[in-house]
Design a protein that fits this description.
About 30% of the residues lie in helices and about 20% in strands. The protein is an alpha+beta fold. It folds into two domains: about 70 residues, UreE, C-terminal domain (Alpha-Beta Plaits), CATH 3.30.70; about 30 residues, no CATH class. The strands form two sheets. A three-stranded antiparallel beta sheet has the order 1-3-2. It has a two-stranded antiparallel sheet with strand order 4-5. The two termini are about 30 Å apart. The mean pLDDT is about 85. The structure holds zinc ion (ZN). Zinc ion binds next to loops.
């Protein structure tokens, strides 16, 4: 298995899982944070992740995810969600105020 996507928001990971499965890629969203209380482990370990079952589909999966996220990020859209940290950002901003991610 290979991780192709990480999200601070487990719901987002669930979306991505569905998108990949619709594209015919065997993918599973894995919820992290099961290993002890938050704060005891690095933030990355708390993130949900999406893995593909077949490593040779990882590249295809990443392309599908990118396409999906770009479609979501309509420049004129009202609010958008930072795919890196999961913050809700107002439509007029192109950069996440929280983590600096550029959509
Ligand atoms: Zn962010």
């Amino acid at each position: 298995m290979k991780t192709v996507y990480t999200a601070a928001d487990p719901i987002m990971a669930g979306f991505i899982e569905g998108v990949l499965q619709n594209a015919g890629i065997q993918a599973h969203a894995m919820q992290a944070g099961l290993y002890g209380a938050a704060g005891e482990i690095p933030p990355n370990e708390c993130w949900a992740r999406v893995v593909v079952v077949h490593e040779n589909q990882a590249e295809q999966a990443r392309a599908v995810i990118k396409e999906y996220l770009e479609a979501e990020a309509d420049p004129q859209a009202k609010a958008w969600k930072c795919p890196r940290c999961g913050e809700q950002i107002e439509g007029q901003f192109t950069q996440c105020w929280s983590c600096g991610y550029e959509r």
